[in-house]
Amino acid sequence: MKIFLDGQFVDEQDAKISVFDHGVLYGDGVFEGIRLYHGRIFRLDAHIERLFDSAKALMLTLPMTKPELVAACCATCRQNNLVDGYLRLVVTRGVGNLGLNPFTCKKPTVFIIAATIELYPKSVYEKGVDLVTAATVRNHPNAISPAIKSLNYLNNILARIEAVKAGTVEALMLNGEGFVAECTGDNIFVIRHGKLITPPVSAGALNGITRTVVLELADKVGLPAREANLTRYDVMTADECFLTGSAAEIVPVASLDGRTIGTGKPGGVTLQLIEEFRKLTRLEGTAI
Ligand code: PMP
Question: Among 75, 87, 205, 215, which residue has the least CB neighbours within 10 Å?
């Protein structure tokens, strides 16, 4: 596997960064997880935009322009002869001293890994995922904004540990007010009385690219959709529920905290959106 590292392609075993990189020392950096379908990178511009916004919030000046990053992502796919896969684009603060001050770091490190994707097990898509509510509350927006896709994922990891310990793969995260924010690595949607609802980004969700795509698809198929605060009760009593993410795509949810959602099987609206999503991934994207 060839890795893009600071403007060069290097073999996997040579793709190394310094122990003084603040990405390692402090989780100081930003990233994106991006999909490649049929030789085209899906919503690449939106991912690059979000990366720049995350970096701006951290006062991290990227050492590459947007077109340069687009070109590097495409080139990394070509170098690895990939047609379908997953890209991990990472920008760390770079090498500095042992202190916290990010301004001692002279140049951010940029790397891109293009690999095949590790999805949830197939059974999750057929049967739906069982969610548990994490006791770990989503980061407060005035602490680390959940809108920043930073290398510090400990908030999500603590909640994911709860999911794994409860015998499942995803956990629902609530915000400090008790409203639904999102899951540890996915956004959440419910369908109730034929209407699609997802929490607003201000509730503590990442502004997911797949989330935006699903809202566009809802518009296309005439499904009323809105953003609104949701409680655990709203999720438990929904007709259907599903999660969205670049890696996961659209994942039906079977239950929350032992309460079956709807019939407990992937619902009709969810399946229709999955179908529309697949169609879209065959049609659009940045050719590599
Ligand atoms: N929320 C979190 C916390 C995430 O890490 C992700 C990405 N894995 C998502 C939501 C989904 O975002 P996207 O659709 O842009 O991948």
Answer: 75
